[in-house]
Amino acid sequence: MPDGWLLGTLAERRYTSAQTKTRNIVERCIGVVKSRFRCIDRSGGVLQYTPEKACKIITSAFILHNICQMYRLPVPNIPDDHPEEDGHDHPAPCETGIQARNDLIRRRFTQAN
Fold first, then answer.
1. 93: which of 16, 29, 69, 101 lies 20 to 30 Å off by Cα?
2. Number of domains in the chain
3. Is residue 19 exposed (0-12), middle (13-18) or buried (19+ Cβ within 10 Å)?
4. How many angstroms separate the Cα of 33 from the Cα of each of 47, 50, 69?
């Protein structure tokens, strides 16, 4: 869990827990597709195309991955020859994003499920 995740209100802790679980699942899915289609993995997180074309490439990779899953084709076991590092600057959260997060917490995580 992220540092300080126990801090905050019960609703904020519920939100953080749900967000963490969801992010872990999404990151594992992305990792599997990147393992199958190494051209996406080697991009360093930045495809050198317009956002529209990059979206089509990524969507196509997920569609092809689903087809491979349907036919039970294994994910290739290709050794990773580069260290895992982010290498990207992440922008500080903007006020609009913080407000959207707080609204979501208030609407969805305040009452017990």
1. 29
2. 1
3. middle
4. 15, 21, 11
